[in-house]
Amino acid sequence: MPRVTHPSSPGLFPEGDTPRSRIAYETRRTTQRAAQAANRRRATPRWLRFLGRRATILAPLALVGGLVLWGWASGKLTAAGNAMNAAFLDVTSRGGLQIQEVLVKGRKETDGAQVLAALGVERGSPILGFDPHAARKQLEQIPWIANARIERRLPDTLYVVLTERQPIAIWQHEQKLALVDAEGTVLTDHNLDHFPNLPILVGDGAPKQGHTLLAALAAEPTIQARVDAAVLVGGRRWDLHLKGGTEVRLPELNFEAALHQLAALEASDKVLDRDVVAIDLRVPDRLVVQTSATAAAARADKGKRPPAKKN
What we know:
There is one protein chain. The protein is α/β, with parallel strands linked by helices and 311 residues long. It has 3 domains: 16-74, no CATH class; 95-164, Ubiquitin-like (UB roll) (Roll), CATH 3.10.20; 167-303, Cell division protein FtsQ/DivIB (Rossmann fold, 3-Layer(aba) Sandwich). The protein has helices at 19-43, 46-74, 76-94, 112-119, 132-139, 206-218, 221-224, 255-269, 293-304; strands spanning 101-105, 145-153, 157-164, 167-173, 176-181, 186-188, 200-202, 227-233, 237-242, 247-249, 276-280, 288-291. A hairpin with a 3-residue loop joins strand 8 (227-233) and strand 9.
């Protein structure tokens, strides 16, 4: 059979119109189209190709973002959110999720009315609208409360656990008395007669420095039992005023050793039971005792008396 040349493509297949030549032709065409497409991609910036591929996603997002920004700037979005939140809380409250009981654990000295005021709730309030974190911060502003923990126990109960501060002394400052804890926090200036056994700290800064002194006194109970007040002198050292009227002057440094020395002297010689006005412990390894004028006169009179005659 004679070979027929493709009428629309004369001379297209140099080797003749054979299956092999047609395959080679199509391969070249495919390669050329791929090269042209690659050239077009290289000519177009990558960010433009990225936007082009994602235009159907980014355009709606941009529209929604613009609407949200407009709503926020105009206040309409906030108002709508508040209205939705109020409606939600109203529905949950009518469904039984409302505060009916407040249980408080750990309250001894804190006023109950202060606790309720800090919580800021009323019976029947929506329990889901209550903010435990904000209420905890308000509770910890009350001087007696060191820390607080609050739980919402659905459907209708608030459970509050309080840790109260522990008073260690009564602070005398500018002719006023107040109860303080180990951190120097002033707890109250009312009902101080409820704490008759606490020592009195006197002077500026005495509450914050007093806990170290009181800890040292606790290690010497015979001295601690006699202390009526401790005065901070110059913000540096302490003078102890004992119940019998004796003044004990402690050194600025290592007053623990001085207190131990005084306790040992009391155990051996009962020095605090004598007619002593002051005991000075400010010089290391030395103890200076000042007696009263009466005791000094008695000793002088005793020295002037003639010795007793022997029979």
